[in-house]
Design brief:
Strand 24 and strand 25 form a beta hairpin. This protein is mainly beta and about 425 residues long. Strands 3, 7, 8, 13, 14, 15, 16, 17 and 21 form a 9-stranded mixed β-sheet that branches.
């Protein structure tokens, strides 16, 4: 299990007679800034499936529970600018999507598009109950026409995450899942867990009779059940979260049982690879979003997949950057104490005395650290530099710097300041 000591790079205030100390180290700090995997459909296919295609602006998004209060739906009111297909339905249409926020609980569904008030969109729609519509093709059926910037090698993140107190995240594998898949599914989560720069951790708790998610039960389950039939949504994740804290309380992953699946090392061209799709969906349990820019096609979180594909089994640069941004391991080396040994129990040093300067350092981070420590006096007086190699997390070390004060002008040398270990 990885360490969970979450401390930012910090320092200590040092004021001492004769000497100050600096520590220097090298490290990489990654700070970088849409959700399920589909068989890619082109606009013609989506148009054929849709009863209406239109361009408009989102006026209002209202979320509410269903009748049994087991799921949250959102009604999206769109002011229509232009109909591209279908008979005119007036100046406004209402689109219903699964997910949204009601009170202190929210539901995020990776297979459903999200809408923002004021956003300009193009949508492929089909009739729903009453006068409403549903989006055809999941996320593929909605395109934001508002100004956006897409960055290759990046990641998408909603801001929702697991609390440290819930890590390792415990999950179960439903008995609806073929028993031969179990080790493969565990590997899907393990791939994310193995990222060195992240403290994310999962624990598989075994199997459960719970099937596909029907409501919130605070149990994280991977299941195998009907979604939408062949050649549509391959798998999806439901995520329940607290709307105030943005902390997750449950995620459920569902593989569509209507698809043809494979767990062989080399996936055949007529099947979808369980590990390939499962690793992508495990990324959604971190609340990483799908990517749809073709420049991101090598990322595990790229939102399209094909039969025979297995490249999502391993993470790409943007995937690694994403999990390290949400759940970062910390590099933190701090000087926790400096003492000066004076001969004869003296209270001050005299020129030509030999003095030991003792510097205590603690690794407060999550990595073994190698760095240099320099002791100095005044502004330019160098006492010496020593190297520290592979200092383990939570480990302390005390370095002794001998100082021959011969030629040092008599003076009271004070040093004060915040001591930081820089990371770039």
């Amino acid at each position: 299990m990885k360490g969970l000591d979450r401390r930012a790079v910090s320092g200590v205030l040092l004021t001492l007679l004769l000497v100050g100390v600096l520590a220097a180290a090298s490290n990489i700090l990654v700070v970088e800034a849409g959700g399920t995997v589909y068989i890619r459909a082109n606009d013609r296919e989506l148009t054929d499936q849709a009863s209406h295609v239109l361009i408009g602006q989102v006026n209002k998004v209202q979320s509410r529970w269903n009748e049994n209060e087991t799921l949250i739906y959102s009604n999206v009111e769109i002011s229509v600018e232009r109909y591209l297909k279908g008979d005119r339905q007036g100046r406004e249409v209402t689109v219903r999507v699964l997910g949204g926020e009601v009170g202190d609980i929210g539901l995020w569904v990776s297979s459903e598009p999200s809408f923002v008030e004021g956003e300009k969109v193009q949508v492929f729609l089909r009739r729903d109950e009453g006068d409403g519509f549903r989006v055809v093709g999941g996320n593929q059926g909605k395109t934001s026409l508002s100004s956006v910037t897409l960055t290759s090698g990046s990641f998408g993140y909603s801001g929702i995450h697991w609390a440290d107190s819930n890590i390792p995240v415990e999950y179960y594998i439903s008995t609806t899942v073929p028993s031969t898949w179990i080790t493969v599914i565990q590997q899907c989560f393990q791939t994310w867990e193995d990222v060195d720069g992240s403290y994310m951790n999962y624990t598989c708790m075994g199997t459960t009779a719970i099937g596909a998610p029907e409501n919130r039960d605070d149990v994280n389950v991977v299941s195998h059940g009907y979604v939408d039939g062949p050649s549509g949504t391959l798998a999806y994740v439901n995520a329940w979260y607290d709307t105030d804290t943005k902390l997750l309380v449950e995620t459920d992953l569902v593989f569509d049982s209507s698809e043809t699946w494979s767990i062989t090392e080399i996936c055949p061209s007529d099947a979808f690879d369980v590990q390939n799709i499962g690793t992508h969906e495990a990324g959604h349990t971190l609340l990483l979003n799908d990517l749809y820019d073709p420049a991101d096609s090598e990322e595990t979180m790229y939102g399209y997949a094909s039969k025979g594909e297995n490249k999502k089994r391993t993470l790409d640069a943007g995937d690694v950057a994403g999990i390290c941004f949400i759940y970062p391991n910390v590099h933190d080396v701090a000087i926790t104490g400096v003492t000066v040994e004076l001969p004869y129990n003296a209270s001050a040093a005299y020129p030509s005395w030999n003095i030991n300067v003792n510097v205590t350092i603690r690794n407060k981070g999550d990595f073994n650290e190698t760095f240099n420590v320099t002791a100095y006096y005044g502004e330019n007086g160098n006492i010496g530099t020593q190297s520290v190699t592979d200092l383990s997390p939570a480990e302390n070390i005390t370095l002794i710097f001998p100082w021959d004060t011969k030629g040092v002008a008599p003076c009271e040398y004070n040093y004060g300041g915040e001591q930081y270990v820089p990371y770039t």
